[in-house]
Automatic annotation (TrEMBL):
UniProt protein name: U2A'/phosphoprotein 32 family A C-terminal domain-containing protein
GO molecular function: U2 snRNA binding
Keywords: Leucine-rich repeat, mRNA processing, mRNA splicing, Nucleus, Repeat, Spliceosome
Superkingdom in the source lineage: Eukaryota
Residue segments, region Disordered: 193-230, 263-335
Species name: Pleodorina starrii
PROSITE patterns xrefs: LRR
Biological-process GO terms, alphabetical: mRNA splicing, via spliceosome
GO annotations of cellular component type: axoneme; spliceosomal complex
Amino acid sequence: MEARPAAGVGPRLPGRITAELIMRSPQYMSCIKQYEIDLRGNKIAAIENLGATQNQFDSIDLSDNAIVRLDGFPKLLRLKQLLMNNNRVARVARGLEEFIPNLDTLILTNNRINNLQDIDPLATLSKLENLSLHGNPVMTKANYRLYVISKLPRLKVLDFKKVKQKERDAAKALFASEEAQATHASKTFEPDEDLAAAQQQAGVAPPREDGGEQQQPEAEGEAEARATAAPSQEQLIAIKAAIANAQTLEEIHRLEEALKTGHLPSEIRVDGGGAGGKEAVPAPAGDDTVMGEGADANGGDQPEGDAQGGQPEEPRPEGEQEAQPDGQQEGMDVS
């Protein structure tokens, strides 16, 4: 082939497609009689400014660059061949038929197309006959070849292999409707997908190493609301019972403060936990009262044996001191 360099050729300007780069790039008649421009290896990240070619080329070679998306074309009615191998293309824009309607050859070898749905925009290129997706992750998807053939019925060569009639028949049978195509394409999995982030977004707890299901961390707002929620009647009675069984003045003050603020101490549990080793045990069946060891049903307001009917006393107003059993009032001032 015979190259025709532009007049006054200087060093290439890498990074972007500019009118100067187009003017300085090699332009020649290829072996298949197509007028081609060579824009290879310029570290180009996006397709732009191709209007500067003035629609003079049958083929544009953008191989060995860093292009990530197939879009940005002006109206190039003459363009028939686009060489895009060894880039980073992961997406194909829709509506390409408006700008490159006569494209019949598209080479996307060694790019980053992952999912079958990413191929769908190519279906509008009605004259596309030669397509290469060799070296893309999408090739590993189930029924990849049949899916592409069903989407591009005019395709003659796929990945440098001729499309056979039996493949067309199989593709037609497998993807008889658009619904079948959509269902099959939606089952594909993107290899580089962040599974942990996807699980967190979906609200699914990742499995633990021991095989169990890992609990989701409690939201900060929920934890704060849980901590500041008012104690229930049973919890109030349990705190009173713990006060009645307290052994030191410091412990009494701490429990009284908990009663005023509504923050239930961690060692006070209605379901069997107790303060300082003393259990707040439930009353007999049918009675909602929870008593501590040595405390009466009224939360320690009366000595043992003076409870009437086992019914809990209404909680006292905040700040009011609790009466102590006779055996514990001696020698300590709770006020």
